[in-house]
C-alpha cells in the first residue's frame, strides 16, 4: 500500500510538539457546500475560516472568545456556527460571514463539546460542568439539562432519527439518552479509554448516518459498534492501530470510517468489509477529522494546530464516500432542515429561528443548493416536532418509525403547492400584552401599565376578569361571561375592547367594546365581520380601532359609530393606542432571506384625522417584534426578540434610539416580557427559561430596569458617565423643543425655563466628571472638546483650576483660550442685541433673588473653587438671536422678565489625590443695578436663555441670597413639566417594587 505525503499548513500555534500527543485539542469541519473549512484550537481564542481552494491565502479570523476554543459545530444548513471555549461561553455566529450573534449560554467550567441536531433546532453543549445542556436555538432557552456523567463530557452525538442523544465522558462511560423524556436509556461504563485530565485528545462518539449504529473508541485500539436500540455490541474495527483511537468520523454515506490514533496514523475503513483500505502517517497526532460533504477528501488537523486535506482518501477504484446519500436521507428522514422551513412550528414568530440569522445567505446560494432545498422539503418537517417536543411546556408525541413513509407520502401530495412558497415568512400579527392559549389554564388577553384582562375556558365558554393594578383608583368592573371566545383585548381608563378570529364558516369574527361607566344604559356595543377577521385591536380617548385580515383599519367612536375605514399598505403586525394617537405596524415588504422583517409604522391622530409620523420600523438583524406600545409620556416604543428597546424621538428628523438591551442585564436562563415604561424605568416580567411569557397565577412580579444606551466600552472606563451625558442631552433637547412649541402659541414657559436651567446644571456636573476622567486618563483632546460643551462660566473656570492642579499647563492654557473666546462672543452678542432695551417694564425687575444653584459634584477633589457667576452656554449667540428676533417682532408687546442668575457654588469636590486651589467662597450676592450699560443678560420668561455675567457689589454691601438645589435630571422622552402630570394607577405597584 503506497504511503503518500500530505502537506499540512499552520492554522494555530500550539503546544511544545514532542510528538507524543502533547499539544492542544484542535477542531476542523467543512460547511455544507464544501466552500469553507473552519478550524480552532483550545490554546488559541481565534477561529479561522479557510478557503479550501486557496489554502495559501489568509483565513478570515473571528476573535470573540477570551480563551482557547475547544469545540466547533455548524448547523445542518451551514448558516450558523457555534463555538465553545475554555472561557465557559458558547457563542453563535452567522456563517460564512462570521458576524457575532449572541452568547447563547454559559457554564461555570470549560466547555469541551458541542453538537447540533439534524434540523438545527437544538444545540447540545457539555464539558467539565455537571450536566449536558440542550439549548433551544429558536429562543435561546435551556430546554433540558441531562445529568448522569461523573467525568468531563468530551463526546456528544444526536441520533439522526431525532430520538436519542449519545454522550461519552473522560472516564469512558457512554450514556444514551431519550430526548423526549430526558431519561438515560442505556449506561455503558468503561467501554472507552479513560483519558483522565488530558484534554489535548478527547473521546468521541458518532452515530452512523442511517442512525442504526453507534461507534465508540474501544479499549483494544479499536472501534466498537453498538446497536441503536439495544446498545448491544455488534462488531469492532480492529487493524494496525498500535495505540488507542482518539478520533473517528463516518463518511457522508456511512460506507467508510476514518480513525486516528495516538500512534499518529489515520486509517480509512470499509465498514461493511471491516477492513482498513488505506492509511496515512503524520508527524503529530491527528486530533480531529472531517469528511468533505461533496467529494472524496478528508480534512485533518493535528495537535500542533496544522491542518491539511487528504485528497482521494478512498481509493478511486472503490465507491465514492458521497455516493448514495439522497437514498439514505429519504429512507431515514435524515434530510436537511433549513431554518426558514421550520418556522411553522413556532406559531407566534413566523421566522422562529430568525434570532440566529439562519438564512442570511439564502439569496446567494448556488443553484445546486436550491434544488436540494426543494428535494428535501418533503422529508424535512418529519423530525421537527420531535425535536421541539423537548420543551417541557409542549405536549410531546413520539412518532413511530413505521409511520415515517406515510408521513412522507402525505407531504408529497402538497409538495408542488408548497415548494414555491418555501422561504422567509412574514411575522404574524400579535396583540401587545397577550399570552398564548394554554389548555386548562388562565391566560392574559391584555396586560399593560394600567391593569390586566384574563380569561379561562370553562364548560364551552370563557370567564373574563378585568383587574387594575391600583385597586384604590381603578373602577370596579364585574366579571363577564364570554360566549364568543375572545382571543385579544385592549384596556384603558374608560373601557375595554375584545375581539376573536373566525371559528369555522358559521362563526364570524366579532369586535366588542365595553365601557366602564356611561350616563346611558346599554352603552356596550359589538360588530360582526363576514369576510374578514380582526387581527389586532387598539383603544384611545373616545375611539376604538381594529385592523383586519383585509388590511382594513376600522375606526369606531366610543358609542359605536363607524367613523372611518382605511386601507393599509401591508399585513398588520400590531397596533396600540394612546390618547388621540393610534400607532400601527405593518409589513413594508416580504422579509429578507435572513428572516429580517421589513416593517413600517404609522401614527394617526384620530381627533384631527391626520398622520403626523410615518417611517420604517427598525428591529435588530435576525429578530422579530415582540412588544409595541407607548411610554407613560406618550413616546412610541418597541422591543424585539434580541432584547433591544427602542424609543422614537424627533432628533435627526425623527429617529429610533436604543435605550435598553436585555443581553447586558439578564441571566442566560431568563427572558424579559415587557409591560411598559416611563421616563426613567422599563417595566417587565422576568420569566425563567424556557418560558417566554408569565402565568396568570401566581401573579406576575414586575421588575424595574434602568434605561441606558448600548454604548461601546470606553477606554476611560466611564461608560456610566457617557450614558448619563447622552441622556441629559436628549432630555434638554426635548425641553427646548417643547419651549419653542409653546412660544409659538404664546404660552408661558417659565416652569420649563426652570427645568431647562436645572438640566443644564446637571449636564455641567456630568461633563465636569468626564473632564476629570479624561485628564486622569491622558485624553486631553477629548477634555478640550468637553470644555466647549459646558454651559456656565463657573464650570469652565472650575475646569481651568482642575487642569492647573493636575499640572497640565498646556491644557489649562487651552481652557483659558476657550473661555476668552466665549466671553468675547457673548460680549459681541450683548452689544449687537441689548436685551435690556427690549422690555417695556424693566425698572422694577432689576433686583432679584438668586434662586438656583448646582449641587456639589460627586467627584474626589478636596477644595471648592468659588466661581463668581454662571454664564451662557457656548452655542448661545445663535439661540439668543432667535429669542431677540421674536421679541422684536412683537414690537414691545411682550414683557421680558429679568433673568435669574444662579450662584453656582462648589462645582464639585474632586478627591482623586488632587487639590484644587480655593478661589474663595462667595456667600452673599447682590446684583448691581445699572442702566443702559447693564451687562446682565436676562432670561426672558418665554425663552430658554441662561443667566450670564452678573456684576457683584462689595461683599460688605450685598444681601443674603437664598440658593435652591437643582432637581434631578429626567429621561429624554419625558414630557414638559408645565402640564399637569397625570397620576398613574400603577404608582402603588411601582412603590412596592422599588421597596
Automatic annotation (TrEMBL):
Compositional bias (Basic residues): 396-412
Mostly located where? Answer: nucleus
Q: Which Gene3D superfamilies match?
A: YVTN repeat-like/Quinoprotein amine dehydrogenase
State its location(s).
Answer: Nucleus
Residues covered by the WDHD1/CFT4 helical bundle domain:
720-823
Listed GO CC annotations: nuclear replication fork
Entry superkingdom: Eukaryota
* The protein, known as: Minichromosome loss protein Mcl1 middle region domain-containing protein
User: From which source organism is this entry?
Assistant: Rhododendron griersonianum
- Biological classification of the source: Eukaryota, Viridiplantae, Streptophyta, Embryophyta, Tracheophyta
Amino acid at each position: 500500500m503506497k504511503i503518500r505525503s500530505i502537506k499540512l499548513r499552520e492554522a494555530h500555534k500550539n503546544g511544545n510538539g514532542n510528538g507524543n500527543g502533547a499539544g492542544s485539542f484542535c477542531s476542523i469541519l467543512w460547511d455544507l457546500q464544501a466552500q469553507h473549512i473552519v478550524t480552532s484550537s483550545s490554546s488559541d481564542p481565534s477561529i479561522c475560516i479557510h478557503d479550501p481552494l486557496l489554502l495559501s491565502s489568509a483565513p478570515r479570523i473571528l476573535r470573540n472568545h477570551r480563551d482557547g476554543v475547544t469545540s466547533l459545530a455548524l448547523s445542518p444548513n451551514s448558516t450558523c456556527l457555534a463555538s465553545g471555549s475554555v472561557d465557559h461561553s458558547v457563542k453563535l455566529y452567522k456563517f460564512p460571514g462570521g458576524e457575532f450573534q449572541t452568547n447563547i449560554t454559559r457554564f461555570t467550567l470549560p466547555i469541551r463539546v458541542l453538537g447540533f441536531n439534524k434540523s438545527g433546532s437544538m444545540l447540545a453543549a457539555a464539558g467539565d460542568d455537571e450536566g449536558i445542556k440542550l439549548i433551544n436555538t429558536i429562543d435561546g432557552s435551556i430546554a433540558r439539562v441531562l445529568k448522569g456523567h461523573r467525568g468531563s463530557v468530551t463526546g456528544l452525538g444526536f441520533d439522526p432519527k431525532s430520538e436519542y442523544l449519545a454522550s461519552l465522558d473522560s472516564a469512558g462511560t457512554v450514556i444514551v439518552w431519550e430526548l423526549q423524556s430526558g431519561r438515560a436509556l442505556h449506561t455503558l461504563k468503561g467501554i472507552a479509554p479513560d483519558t483522565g485530565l488530558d484534554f489535548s485528545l478527547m473521546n468521541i462518539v458518532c452515530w452512523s448516518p442511517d442512525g442504526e449504529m453507534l461507534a465508540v473508541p474501544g479499549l483494544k485500539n479499536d472501534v466498537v459498534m453498538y446497536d441503536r436500540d439495544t446498545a448491544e455490541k455488534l462488531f469492532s474495527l480492529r487493524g494496525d492501530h498500535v495505540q488507542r483511537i482518539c478520533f473517528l468520523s463516518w463518511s457522508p454515506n456511512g460506507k467508510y470510517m476514518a480513525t486516528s490514533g495516538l500512534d499518529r496514523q489515520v486509517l480509512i475503513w470499509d465498514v461493511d468489509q471491516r477492513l482498513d483500505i488505506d492509511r496515512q502517517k503524520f508527524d503529530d497526532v491527528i486530533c480531529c477529522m472531517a469528511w468533505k460533504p461533496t467529494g472524496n477528501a478528508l480534512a485533518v488537523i493535528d495537535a500542533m494546530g496544522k491542518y491539511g486535506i487528504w485528497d482521494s482518501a478512498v481509493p478511486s477504484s472503490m465507491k465514492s464516500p458521497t455516493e448514495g446519500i439522497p437514498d439514505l436521507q429519504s429512507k431515514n428522514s435524515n434530510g436537511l432542515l433549513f431554518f426558514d422551513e421550520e418556522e411553522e412550528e413556532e406559531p407566534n414568530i413566523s421566522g422562529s429561528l430568525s434570532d440566529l440569522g439562519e438564512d442570511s445567505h439564502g439569496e446567494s446560494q448556488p443553484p445546486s443548493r436550491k434544488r436540494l432545498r426543494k428535494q428535501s422539503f418533503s422529508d424535512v418537517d418529519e423530525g421537527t416536532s420531535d425535536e421541539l417536543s423537548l420543551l417541557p411546556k409542549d405536549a410531546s408525541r413520539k412518532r413511530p418509525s413505521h409511520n415515517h413513509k406515510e408521513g412522507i407520502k402525505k407531504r408529497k401530495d402538497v409538495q408542488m403547492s408548497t415548494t414555491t412558497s418555501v422561504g422567509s415568512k412574514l411575522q404574524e400579527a400579535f396583540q401587545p400584552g397577550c399570552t398564548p392559549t394554554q389548555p386548562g389554564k388562565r391566560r392574559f388577553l391584555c396586560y399593560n401599565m394600567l391593569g390586566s384582562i384574563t380569561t379561562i375556558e370553562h364548560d364551552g365558554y370563557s370567564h373574563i376578569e378585568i383587574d387594575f393594578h391600583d385597586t384604590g383608583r381603578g373602577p370596579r368592573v364585574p366579571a363577564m361571561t364570554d360566549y364568543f371566545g375572545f382571543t385579544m383585548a385592549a384596556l384603558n381608563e374608560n373601557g375595554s375592547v375584545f375581539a376573536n378570529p373566525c371559528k369555522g364558516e358559521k362563526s364570524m369574527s366579532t369586535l366588542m367594546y365595553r365601557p366602564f361607566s356611561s350616563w346611558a344604559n346599554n352603552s356596550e356595543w359589538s360588530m360582526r365581520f363576514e369576510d374578514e377577521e380582526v387581527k389586532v385591536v387598539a383603544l384611545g380617548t373616545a375611539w376604538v380601532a381594529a385592523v383586519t385580515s383585509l388590511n382594513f383599519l376600522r375606526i369606531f367612536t366610543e358609542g359605536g359609530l363607524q367613523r372611518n375605514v382605511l386601507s393599509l399598505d401591508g399585513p398588520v403586525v400590531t397596533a396600540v393606542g394612546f390618547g388621540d394617537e393610534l400607532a400601527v405596524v405593518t409589513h413594508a415588504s416580504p422579509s429578507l432571506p435572513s428572516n429580517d422583517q421589513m416593517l413600517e409604522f404609522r401614527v394617526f391622530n384620530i381627533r384631527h384625522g391626520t398622520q403626523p409620523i410615518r417611517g420604517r420600523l427598525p428591529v435588530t438583524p435576525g429578530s422579530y417584534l415582540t412588544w409595541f406600545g407607548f411610554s407613560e409620556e406618550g413616546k412610541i416604543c418597541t422591543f424585539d426578540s434580541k432584547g433591544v428597546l427602542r424609543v422614537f424621538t424627533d432628533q435627526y428628523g425623527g429617529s429610533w434610539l436604543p435605550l435598553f438591551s436585555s443581553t447586558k442585564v439578564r441571566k442566560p436562563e431568563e427572558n424579559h416580557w415587557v409591560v411598559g415604561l416611563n421616563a426613567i424605568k422599563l417595566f417587565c416580567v422576568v420569566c425563567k427559561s424556557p418560558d417566554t411569557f408569565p402565568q396568570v397565577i401566581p401573579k406576575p412580579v414586575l421588575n424595574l430596569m434602568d434605561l441606558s444606551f448600548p454604548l461601546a466600552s470606553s477606554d476611560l472606563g466611564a461608560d456610566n458617565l457617557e450614558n448619563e451625558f447622552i441622556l441629559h442631552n436628549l432630555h434638554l433637547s426635548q425641553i427646548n423643543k417643547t419651549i419653542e412649541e409653546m412660544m409659538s402659541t404664546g404660552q408661558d414657559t417659565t416652569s420649563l425655563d426652570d427645568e431647562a436651567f436645572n438640566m443644564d446644571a446637571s449636564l455641567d456636573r456630568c461633563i465636569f466628571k468626564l473632564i476629570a476622567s479624561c485628564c486622569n486618563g491622558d485624553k486631553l483632546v477629548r477634555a478640550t472638546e468637553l470644555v466647549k460643551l459646558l454651559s456656565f462660566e463657573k464650570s469652565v473656570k472650575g475646569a481651568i483650576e482642575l487642569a492647573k492642579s493636575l499640572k497640565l499647563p498646556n491644557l489649562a492654557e487651552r481652557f483659558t483660550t476657550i473661555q476668552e473666546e466665549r466671553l468675547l462672543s457673548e460680549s459681541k452678542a450683548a452689544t449687537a442685541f441689548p436685551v435690556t432695551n427690549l422690555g417695556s417694564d424693566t425698572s422694577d425687575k432689576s433686583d432679584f433673588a438668586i434662586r438656583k444653584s448646582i449641587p456639589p459634584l460627586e467627584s474626589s477633589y478636596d477644595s471648592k473653587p468659588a466661581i463668581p457667576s454662571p454664564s451662557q452656554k457656548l452655542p448661545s449667540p445663535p439661540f439668543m438671536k432667535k429669542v431677540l428676533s421674536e421679541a422684536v417682532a412683537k414690537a414691545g408687546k411682550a414683557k421680558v422678565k429679568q433673568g435669574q442668575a444662579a450662584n453656582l457654588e462648589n462645582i464639585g469636590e474632586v478627591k482623586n489625590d488632587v487639590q484644587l486651589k480655593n478661589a474663595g467662597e462667595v456667600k452673599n450676592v447682590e446684583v448691581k443695578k445699572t442702566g443702559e450699560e447693564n451687562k446682565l443678560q436676562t432670561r426672558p420668561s418665554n425663552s430658554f436663555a441662561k443667566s450670564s455675567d452678573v456684576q457683584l457689589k462689595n461683599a460688605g454691601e450685598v444681601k443674603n441670597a437664598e440658593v435652591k438645589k437643582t432637581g434631578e435630571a429626567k429621561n429624554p422622552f419625558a414630557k414638559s413639566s408645565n402640564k399637569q402630570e397625570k397620576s398613574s394607577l400603577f404608582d402603588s405597584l411601582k412603590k412596592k417594587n422599588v421597596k
